[in-house]
């Protein structure tokens, strides 16, 4: 076995840490070179940057357990990382140079496929796109759908309880998991890989780890739920004069189409204009402008009658004056073009300026009222405010962002962010909403969480953290 390279200047305090880690994972499991470490040390958005003595890449659950036992014994802090596509800085080490980055990308095996049970057992480093492919090979469907599916991993999806565009029908990641395997901070392995729909034997421990953002342990594998593969889809773009109209349309389509309704996405006209201006090969889906737009999709395991069902529901809404215009896709390329408009918003925001992001969840019935209040409040604070309002209307998740000029000075941006965040989040809290719907808390919302989380709820979270991670080594500075 070769000797690891000289300890970097930012090495963790324990003198033989690197040697012990090297003995555990070998040459392929350590990244010590500064240039090779760089992709692990900043988040996808480029907002957070850190340092580390070493990136550790175990290739098995047993190696992960051995690594965690070493870090627990030496009180070495650990930041677990999947595909590093998060939006809240939850997988980025801090600037101290003391936190080990534990990358799960080498744990990328599909362990078991069970078509009869509609389940798939995969390791944490498997790409979401590869889960989709594995399901398709057995004529099944895994519904979690994210723009980053070619680079995000199952472990990261579980750690953040990722949402996406199909939550309306299938739920968040939490709802798509039957069991997990996790390594505790002290290196013990909990094997909860049970592929059961019913298991009424006490506390459901998997839900402690799902959404915990790497603060309680390391998720190493999961049993995922599969579904019958849809063979037909029907997609439409709708223009409406108000959010109230789209909320009413959502209720109608739920009744008319039932569980075939998979997605109901919303974009303001300002959001659509931003995409048309900054994303190439896009065009307006409707002839005129409308205050709000919706992208609706049905899916079914039967090919017959799906488009007719959607047309029937939207036709009635047009006749009743609920919506102003509708375009129903006649082919797959048109549907792809419509989805490109929705998925292009993040890219357009990056090109257009600096976005102050709000990933919020609201009762669907309260969305229209919230947007009216928030628009007025922000305009009072900043008369020239540019609001980029879009999101998953079907499950009450809005990305209510405020765009600032690209040349906004850092100090001014920081001041505006704090003020606008407090304004928006106070309104969200007042109507029983959440300041994080699908992106997680990470570093981004950590200091705000105690302001909006009930004191007892926060205390219980802290007690669980203390019980599982008494040395406080798991992802310090994130979530709590």
Automatic annotation (TrEMBL):
One GO biological process this protein is involved in is: respiratory electron transport chain
Q: Domain named FAD-binding PCMH-type: which ranges?
A: 48-229
PROSITE patterns given in the database record: FAD_PCMH (PS51387)
- State what protein this is by name: Hydroxyacid dehydrogenase
GO MF terms, alphabetically ordered: catalytic activity; FAD binding
Q: Which PANTHER family match?
A: BLL6224 PROTEIN (PTHR43716:SF2), D-2-HYDROXYGLUTARATE DEHYDROGENASE, MITOCHONDRIAL (PTHR43716)
Necessary cofactors? FAD
Domain of life, source organism: Bacteria
Under the heading InterPro entries, the entry gives: FAD-bd_oxidored_4_C, FAD-bd_PCMH, FAD-bd_PCMH-like_sf, FAD-bd_PCMH_sub1, FAD-bd_PCMH_sub2, FAD-linked_Oxase-like_C, FAD-oxidored/transferase_4, Oxid_FAD_bind_N
Question: Keyword annotations for this protein?
Answer: FAD, Flavoprotein
Which family does the record assign? Belongs to the FAD-binding oxidoreductase/transferase type 4 family.
> Quick one: signal sequence residues?
none
Keyword Transferase assigned: no
Q: Name one Pfam family in it.
A: FAD-oxidase_C
